[in-house]
Design goal:
The structure holds 2 protein chains of 2 kinds.
Chain A: E1 5-16, E2 19-31, E3 36-40, H1 47-54, E4 62-64, E5 69-74, E6 77-80, H2 86-90, H3 92-96, E7 98-101, H4 105-108, H5 115-127, H6 131-144, H7 150-154, H8 163-176, E8 181-185, H9 193-210, E9 213-218, H10 221-227, E10 230-235, E11 238-244, H11 245-250, H12 255-263, H13 302-306, E12 312-315, E13 318-320
Parallel strand pairs in A: 3-9, 3-10, 7-8, 8-9
Antiparallel strand pairs in A: 1-2, 1-4, 1-5, 5-6, 10-11, 11-13, 12-13
Chain B: E1 4-16, E2 27-39, E3 43-47, H1 54-60, E4 69-75, E5 81-83, H2 89-98, E6 99-102, H3 116-126, H4 133-146, H5 163-175, E7 181-185, H6 193-209, E8 213-218, H7 221-227, E9 230-235, E10 238-243, H8 245-250, H9 255-263, H10 303-307, E11 313-316, E12 319-321, H11 326-335
Parallel strand pairs in B: 3-8, 3-9, 6-7, 7-8
Antiparallel strand pairs in B: 1-2, 1-4, 4-5, 9-10, 10-12, 11-12
The chains are: A alpha/beta, B alpha/beta.
């Protein structure tokens, strides 16, 4: 595959006092350059753990499964993410080729260091720029993301900026190293809708300009519909459905995806009853056998409790892991 | 006119911003002149961005924010009128039983060191509403069942519960004193969508079963549209529009409401780029702009808006808006295609 990121069969287990907890279970993902892959799921579904695994930011008690593979391809050169050893080698996926923006920009900026200093530091580290060049580039990036008076903002602290401005600064910082892959973990969840719309527009514009791939993590299917090219739906560490955003949202093949869509309040039909997905997401310590979703699935049959479903193609490029999903004709 | 549970008249809530040597100290007007009636038995939605003053307004109706000017009164179902600016100790005790608050974060709202039974029973014990322990237990069990918690849940500690279950515990605690007015401040914002629908359905059902009056505060217009029977939109401490949700969505008469509706990410992937975008951010309430508070971000701003503040006036039955040009908005709408597209 000539993709940018290839993840094959990623399995991640945490050793805890109460026993091993499987947070990610056989996840397979592909991202092409310039493509936005949306990753949706409830809290506890393992989406953030997956994202952190790409930068090897997992704690010491994390164990990768034997068959797990993660490869990042840049300019014909393949980086096997799991074989990287030592801080220097890891720097390739921690800021050089992969950048990350987080949900809460206040927690991501150091509070006692100016925004400019933090931007300059990482540019010196990852791109080997001189202090002066790094300063110029940082101010240019701040301007690029729509921050007024970038020169003055450069010398301010994170608390002096509003939530929207902070998230813009975060994006400027993440993109200034020119990463090939940007991981955006709920980047607009903490923002007001009008500001969210502005930040999403900005991100879409910058993908076009920089041509990087984006892994966009969110629990909001509306945000996915507005930004992603493809979407993967995650539940209890598994990808249960994956495909082009139009197909997945219009013709979901997995009952969980269907449930997420039905639970959303829709402005077009104010009389429609809101249908919750019944029950709660089970604790990762008590992962159900068979299909992980069977405890909450209205359509569950006997075989769902016993055998985990294979991922199958329901349509070209659209796959689902459900015993009841229709098989693709082709 | 229907019976009014909460009546707000020209309410202002000021918070002091430090001291000054000469003259009056500067103040932040979190609520800057709000007049609003919440009908008894309604599910009243209050929406706005962060910094709009919606939480402060909600708190002012619970005597939890200072009333700097104007008046707020809450009338309970027995007809007793509580004036938030003049609550003596005895009246306050009676009022606390009648009005309750449900918080946003179900993780922070529950003490990790108390069992669910003790959490729900605490208001009864503090207010000495029951004479015996059995009476308390009966009441706790009854309200827990109504909030779909079972008896064995009561013995456990909050850490054993998911977000949705914790929110049900918070709701049970708020309802245990048999109140008739509830302020729910972003009560579903911290929950996953799959659980959010469940809590909203529960709140609606409790409201009908117990004939409660709800003030439902949220930043999410789509949630409010689905649950509330009246919606007030707030911006910089002022109410800019009030209408039943259907009307509000079909024909918003304030440009801010229109922009808010259009900023909700549509589920239709082919809708991209159609939405109307607001530029800039909500100004600081420390220095609100003169004239119409929204003029700095308004796409249809004219000279008059920069000097003269528009009053909230009725534009149709049950529908008011505070915009000098709300009639133009209605006309433009009739002519052009609706900017709020509906997904297929």
């Amino acid at each position: 595959m000539g993709g940018l990121l290839t993840v094959r069969d990623l399995t991640l287990t945490f050793g805890t006092d109460e026993g091993p907890v499987t947070a990610v279970d056989g996840v397979t993902l592909d991202i092409e350059p310039g493509e936005v892959l949306g990753l949706v799921g409830e809290s506890g579904s393992g989406k953030s753990v997956t994202a952190k695994a790409l930068m090897r930011l997992n704690p010491a008690n994390a164990r990768y499964g034997a068959g797990s593979r993660m490869t990042l391809t840049d300019a014909g050169q393949e980086i096997d993410i799991l074989s990287l050893k030592g801080a220097k080698a890891l720097r390739q996926v921690r800021g050089d080729k992969i950048s990350m923006i987080f949900q809460e920009p206040m927690a991501s900026f150091a509070p006692a260091i100016t925004i400019g200093k933090q931007m300059v530091e990482q540019l010196q580290l990852h791109r080997g720029l001189s202090r002066g060049d790094a300063r110029m580039l940082s101010i240019e990036m701040l301007e690029r993301v729509g921050i007024s008076e970038p020169g003055a903002r450069f010398d301010q602290y994170a608390f002096e900026l509003s939530g929207g401005m902070r998230q813009r600064a975060m994006i400027a910082m993440a993109l200034s190293t020119r990463p090939r892959l940007l991981i955006a973990d709920e980047p607009t969840t903490a923002l007001d809708v009008t500001i969210q719309a502005q930040v999403l527009d900005l991100m879409k514009e910058l993908v076009g300009e920089f041509g990087m791939g984006i892994l966009f993590i969110t629990h909001d299917l509306g945000v996915i519909a507005q930004t992603a090219d493809r979407v993967a739906v995650m539940y209890l560490g598994r990808i249960v459905e994956e495909g082009p955003v139009r197909d997945v949202i219009r013709r979901p093949a997995h009952p969980y995806t269907r449930g997420l869509i039905d639970a959303l309040p829709k402005l077009t039909d104010l009389d429609a009853a809101l249908t919750p997905v019944p029950g709660d997401i089970p604790s990762p310590l008590e992962r159900p056998g068979g299909c992980v979703f069977h405890t909450r699935c209205a359509l569950a049959e006997a075989r769902c409790r016993i055998a985990p479903p294979e991922t199958r193609l329901v349509r070209p490029r659209h796959s689902a892991a459900c015993h009841l999903a229709p098989e693709s004709a082709s | 006119m229907t019976d009014t549970a909460v009546s707000i008249r020209d309410l202002e809530v000021h918070f002091p911003l430090g001291r000054s040597l000469l003259g009056k100290p500067p103040v932040l007007k979190a609520v800057a002149g709000v007049t609003l009636d919440i009908p008894r038995g309604s599910f009243f939605g209050l929406v706005g961005e962060s910094g709009s003053g919606k939480t402060t307004l909600g708190r002012a109706t619970l005597a939890a924010a200072p009333v700097s000017a104007g008046q707020v009164t809450v009338t309970d179902r027995e007809g007793e009128v509580f004036d938030m600016a003049r609550l003596d100790r005895a009246a306050e005790t009676r009022f606390r039983r009648r009005a309750q608050l449900i918080f946003q974060d179900p993780y922070a709202a529950l003490s990790p060191r108390m069992t669910v039974r003790d959490i729900i029973a605490e208001p009864l014990e503090v207010m000495r509403l029951c004479r015996t322990r059995d009476e308390v237990n009966d009441r706790v069990r009854a309200i827990a069942a109504q909030c779909r918690l079972n008896v064995e849940h009561l013995r456990r500690f909050p850490h054993a519960f998911s977000g949705g279950q914790r929110q049900r515990i918070s709701i049970a605690r708020a309802l245990v004193t048999n109140p008739d007015y509830i302020v729910a401040d972003e009560s579903v914002a911290a929950l996953d969508v799959s659980i959010q629908a469940d809590i909203l359905n529960l709140l609606k059902q409790l409201q009908r079963d117990l004939s409660l009056t709800f003030l439902f505060i949220s930043h999410d217009l789509s949630v409010v549209a689905h649950t509330c029977d009246h919606v007030a939109v707030m911006y910089l401490g002022r109410i800019v529009e009030v209408a039943p949700p259907r009307r509000l969505f079909a024909a918003p008469r304030h440009p801010y409401t229109r922009a808010l509706i259009s900023a909700i990410p549509s589920l239709d992937p082919d809708d991209r780029g159609r939405a109307e975008r607001l530029t800039g951010e909500i100004p600081s309430p420390k220095s609100p702009p003169p004239g119409c508070a929204f003029h700095t971000r308004c796409p249809m701003v004219r000279d008059r808006c920069r000097v003269e503040a528009p009053a909230l006036r009725q534009v149709a039955d049950g529908h008011s808006a505070a915009c000098h040009f709300s009639d133009d908005l209605a006309l433009a709408r009739r002519r052009a295609d609706s900017p709020v597209r509906v997904p297929a």
